[in-house]
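ZP: hey, is the pyridoxal-5'-phosphate complex queued? I don't see it on the tracker
AM: it wasn't, my bad. submitting now with these inputs:
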Amino acid sequence: MESWRIETRCLQEGYKPGNGEPRVLPIFQSTTYKYDSTEHVAKLFDLEVPGHMYTRISNPTVECVENKIASLEGGVGALCTSSGQSASMIAVMNICGCGDHVVSSGTIYGGTYNLFSVTLKKMGVEVSFVDPDASEDEIQKAFRPGTKAVFAETIANPKISVLDIEKFARISKKNNVPLIVDNTFATPILCRPIEFGADIVVHSTTKYMDGHATSVGGAIVDAGSFDWKNGKYPDMTQPDPSYHGVAYTEAFAEKAYITKARVQYMRDIGNCMSPMNAFLTNIGLETLHIRMERHCENAVKVARYLKGSDKVLSVSYPALAEDKYYDMAGKYLPKGCSGVISFRIKGGREEAVRFMDRLKLAAIVVHVADARTAVLHPASSTHRQLSDSQLMDAGIEPDLIRFSVGLENADDIIEDISQALG
Ligand SMILES: *Cc1c(COP(=O)(O)O)cnc(C)c1O
């Protein structure tokens, strides 16, 4: 990988055409690859030589996007997945099995909360949720002998709180387990969790990375720094019977985790990113740095307007000096806090719904982090499955509105909010 600055890497990393080759990343819309000998195929299947076997496991178009995302996050490798949900699922299940345990921040995306609290539980993996703002001693109480990972979000969706990544990294290190950080909202442009001690980074590329709401996708990035040989991860160090006895740490050194995720989990479960979606995600990544700058700039203006309105009860946006997470944002998000704001308007749930229905430019969509301004009421959509007490644990009041500031002129967005507030 190159030592270029991150803006240059958004455009130039991943695909590097040779003389006379297409300038733009080609879409290798092929499930399969051709070989000269059966011996070569056998070596591929024994993981003795690198190369593509089958698009479920790897594909040249997808691989370029994986290399670009790994470079942006500062990892040794990445694996693209069919969605952000798949990325979180594989990131955890790659190192957890029945009987294992995970400590997770309770302030996370509703889909991840459901995955952790219901689906993983059925698979025998138990997740304990902690308050990310609690003291280290308090969080330590959630650990058990079978704890295998810690999970949290850089900027929590939709509470818009900022994670103290170094605190979580310290706790994880003390317990000899990796820290997995969902960096979807911040993107590597605003924060690179690996620089603060995260071991694995996951993304819903569906959001800012794509940026135009065309492709559902996800990614897992491996920092390559975690010591899998500490005795807690036999699946990483002992021979894998499904690969003629390959031991991942021995065969792939610092890439053990991400290789296992691909050749074992992706091979068996099959939630891969399609070449077409990788192509579209790559186009999004090329402008990520510029878009993030404008999302942040517009969001500050909108957040200030909301803060000044007597119709608004409270605003969560960490770039505002009055925000609870202002200092944390100064440390982890010095370039800005993304385009997502959450706020509550006076009058409760009914008034929140009325406000949303009156908006003309901002569209009601089950999506965030997109070029077009969007608005969502988490309690009646993404977090609908949560009980009132689970909602409060996740930091979501029933009247909370999640507002995703787009790339339109900020004055037009503000005028729309103003007329809808009435
Ligand atoms: C949307 C989202 C996810 C899930 O991603 P999908 O691509 O929708 O599966 C995970 N984490 C966060 C923070 C998200 O915003």
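AM: back. The pocket of pyridoxal-5'-phosphate is lined by residues 83-85, 109, 111-112, 153, 157, 182, 184-185, 204, 206-207, 216, 218 (CB under 6 Å).
ZP: great, adding it to the tracker
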